[in-house]
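ok trying this again, last paste got cut off
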Amino acid sequence: MKVEFIESEFWGVALLVAEADFKLAKTKDAEFDSLAHATAAFANLFDVDYTIARSEYNAALDALEKNGAVIFSIGSSQYPERRWVEIQVSNNNQPKRVLYADEDGYHLIRHAHFNPKAVAAIQKRHKEERKK
């Protein structure tokens, strides 16, 4: 798996994984293990105990679109002083939060894609059931 350590004004220090490389881990356990090692190594640079879980991977995969990227960054707070890993998905330079933390703890957000064909099929089936 190809990952890239970056430093930017917007993200700060981050681990960037391109869409094509991130999707390889969906079916290949060796690629998922490689991603897990990369996220653990990134988090350990900042004394954070973190390894990506399959549920977090699936949530990021749901939000990821073609030519997008998954960005792992370090979040922090001063009072109390603590750090954590946040996951954002960037599609067309529009970031979406997938995993973040605040005073209420960790939040994992699942994003759904609208499928007009599925909606049309459900509406059709519903209308047929009403006619009976």
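PB: full thing came through this time. The mean pLDDT is 86.
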